[in-house]
Amino acid sequence: MQHGYYIEGGLMEEGEFEPLIIAFCCNWCAYAGADLAGTSRISYPTNLRIIRLMCSGMVHPALVMDALMRGVDGVLIAGCHPGDCHYTDGNLKTERRVEALTVMMEDMGIERERLRLEWVSSGEGEKFARVVQEMTEQIKKLGPSPFKLG
Amino acid sequence: MSEEEPKIGVYVCHCGVNIAGAVDVEDVIKYVEKLPNVAIAKNYVYMCSAPAQAMIKEDIKEHGLNRVVVASCSPRMHESTFRRVVDEGGLNPYLFEMANIREQCAWVHAAEPKKATKKAKDLIRMSVARAGLLEPLQKREVNVVRRALIIGAGVSGIRAALDLAERGFDVYLIEKAPYIGGRMVQLNKLYPTDEYALDALKPIMEAVASHSKIQLLTNSEINMVDGYIGNFKAKITIKPRYVTENCDACGECEIACPIEVPNEFDYGLSKRKAIYLPFPGAMLTKYLIDNKNCNKCGKCVEVCQKRAIDFEQQSQEMEVDIGTIIVAIGHDLYDPPEGEYGYKIYENVITMPQLERLLNKNGPANGELGFSGFTPKSVVFISCVGARQEPGIYKPVKEGQQLNRYCSRVCCIASLKNALEIKRRYPDARVYYLYRDIRTFGRGHEDYYKRAGESRVLFIEYKAEAPPIVSNNPNGLTVTVQDVLTNNEIIAVPADLVVLNVSMVPPADALDLQTKLKIPRGTEGFFQEAHAKLRPLDTPSDGIYLAGTAQGPKDVTDSAAMGSAAAAKAAILLVKGKVELEPIVAYVDLTKCDGCAMCVEPCTFKAIIIEEYEEKGAIKKRAVVNDALCKGCGACAATCPPKCIYVKHFTLDQISAMINAALIE
User: Which of B134, B200, B580, B584 has the most crowded Cβ, counting Cβ within 10 A?
Assistant: First the structure.
């Protein structure tokens, strides 16, 4: 087992590149939407690792940049639809941060598709699965993170 | 950070075959045992079962566990269950972590068991990494002020006020208008009882106005609300009436007053004077002066026997301490833009609320549809005006018009009631009902639909793509409609009167109150409940509840029910007298904070202030969190450059640890 500090992410299996995608999901909407995909038994690719937060507005841009620079192949931030945020407007702050992050990523030579912001309500299990499917396929095409060693 | 080494107990649940069917639980346990800081790793058929819960409690004592991780279903399902178990086992409930290997693993990867097993291992590894960094947290208890504030004295606010007062609690009931009763007193009759709305509400209004425990403030508005659950402070502005307590409503002033303005109570169908009583039977039964339109001529003063007019009256400010707040500010009606179905262009196109006023014996026509002095021969109702406006199908009338996609729920039954009423009073009148759907869902509603058909109300279905067109011709109005049920035949219906069934829309001051109370509104603009099914009265701000149409379109039945329900919810807090505050709030690491204040502005709840302090002779600044106001949303934590403010239980270190753990093979 390798120590986590080194960029050894991505799940190589039988020669095919399996991306590692970290998803920050808000407790009230997106995480519940992901649960609904489960309750509805909708299949989606296995590459997602979900981290539950109280609000998408909790995601510090440094967390995203660190993740991408340590070799995470993609980051998904999923929150409530505008107008539905449990904390009124946390998701709107997320939106602005993602705009800034996209600029930073381009400066660092990271493809903008590796960061995705989605609004997923607690009733949108199908949408969640679809987003995961799309993003996994897209990241597979992009290839491993430019920050991966070896 | 905790002093001692983490000793983590990990429990992997089979959940019958729900998890074990896709995830190789035995393989997972073998892997988990070897993770750093894991003291024991066990698997069990149902971790939420009584024997499993007992096992956790025993293991905490026997193995000296100081962290517990359960890998099973969604934390949204059982986090509170296991927190309680851990608490009973003698460990702080916030030293507990869950890995979701059911909804977010076994159930979505059933066809890929090898990958699902690998993912389960990864998720547990992430949770173990986080568990090691969790800190014990304590809930804080605060007292609840045993008084309630109800904003809005329509039927739901009044109902809530009475229920709470009857329980023995002091209530402030404040109302923006100079009268109570809200929209209900503007109605004519109610369904399904066919009683007069004002008569039905009168006894309840009188009870509210005279109850010893209710302080009723009309003509009053909320200026500001501060504080948190159990301990709110509200500033109320009582606007001046310019008429004193001495007024006996004799009406002489109204006769003498030379100014006439449109009467908003009659939706502009009649005029009132600048000094006026809102309507016959209004409570408070006192006149007031519309200061904006009054020219201070003094004619009213000359005739007032009671010397009750005081132009110098000032507004009063009042500050109150309350424990809970109920928001019952009601709704406005959709005001069709000029030209929609001929509204505001042709005089004889009115809205249904205007029809209610016309049919009302205290209304502008004394109950007759004697509108502009005529008796209608042909009345056409058009449904779904200002509702069910689908983008791409509905053609906006005004530039930048906001579309209402929702159904306004009550217009079908309300307009059928009125169609029947018109038929009853004018048996020779032809009544046409142009609809998209008939939604008569409630008790007794279908009966109105049946009776309308029996009374020869003519029902014509139209599709949203081809809405009726109202046009003028020398004989009167014509409503041209594509009749779905006769294969889209185009019918031209002659009309003396066109009634638009308009939707309920959020009230004009909703945004203002949202800002003052910091509670969210949904995409349609009505106040958002905390959970659509199970918490329809709570707002995400504890201690603030919703009642009536402020939360969405509904009729008097549901508004009254919701008022009583909100009172019951408010009473829980008031009876308990104490409330526990969640410890998942922001926290400042004072060793790193330099008072840059970047965290202050993103805080929607204004929970962070910057204070000055002295250190080694120098004045320094730092951020201070009011953890009673803080909701734990983390907007501050995501903005802090030195990363020294974080939400307890969701610290940046804990999240980073999870990401790092995900990267390990």
Answer: B134
Mind listing the pLDDT tens digit for each residue in A33-47?
999 999 999 999 999
Token pair of B318, please? 């009042």
Q: Nearest CA to CA, how far is A43 from chain B (Å)? A: 4
* Cα gap B591→B613, rounded to integer Å: 13
State residue B228's pLDDT score. 86
pLDDT score of B374: 72
Nearest of B376, B629, B608, B402 to residue B505 by alpha carbon: B402
Pick the closest to residue B286 from B314, B308, B315 (CA basis). Answer: B308
B252 Cα to chain A: minimum distance (Å)? 50
| Rounded Cα distance, B656 and B419, in Å | 65
Name the band, by pLDDT with cuts 50, 70 and 90, for residue A3: very low
| B659/A72 CB distance under 8 A | yes
- Residue of chain B nearest A11, judged by CA positions: B665
What ipTM goes with this model? 0.91
B566-582 mean pLDDT: 94
pTM: 0.81
Per-residue pLDDT reduced to its tens digit, B412-464:
999 999 999 999 999 999 999 999 999 999 999 999 999 999 999 999 999 99
Q: Tell me the Cα Rg of chain A.
A: 15
DSSP one-letter code for B105: I
Tokens of B28: 């997972």
* Nearest residue of B to residue A54, measured between CA atoms: B633
Is A60 in contact with B643 (Cβ distance < 8 A)? Answer: yes
Angle at B399 between CA B394 and CA B405, to 5 degrees: 35
Give the span between the Cα atoms of B405 and B508, in whole angstroms.
Answer: 18
